[in-house]
């Protein structure tokens, strides 16, 4: 992990197409950043990415469980 200290208005380049601009510090609330990137790149907050991935995993497991219920040799619950 690269750790940098930046002041408001300073930028970081990632490759040739991504620019991160540090906009302002809000003390204990955190910092505001701006991200300029091509539209084909998805930019997500980590907590949103993890929530969606977890929901997808749960849905896949539920679907797989439903498929397995109908297979011969599976115990049926009454």
Radius of gyration: 22 Å
Query: So how many helices?
Result: 1
The helicity comes to: 25-40%
Strand content: 15-25%
Major sheet: arrangement of strands: 1-2-3
What is the typical, i.e. mean, pLDDT?
86
Quaternary status of these chains? Answer: single chain
- Poorly predicted segments: none
Secondary-structure element order, as H and E? EEEH
Shape: elongated
How many strands? 3
End-to-end distance, in Å?
53 Å
Largest β sheet strand count, sense and barrel closure: 3 strands, antiparallel
The class by helix and strand makeup works out as alpha+beta
Quick take:
This protein is an alpha+beta fold and about 80 residues long. It contains one helix and three strands; from the N terminus they run E-E-E-H.
What does this molecule look like?
The protein has 78 residues and is an alpha+beta fold. The protein has one helix at 46-69, and strands at residues 11-14, 18-25, 31-36. A three-stranded antiparallel beta sheet has the order 1-2-3, with no helix packed on it.
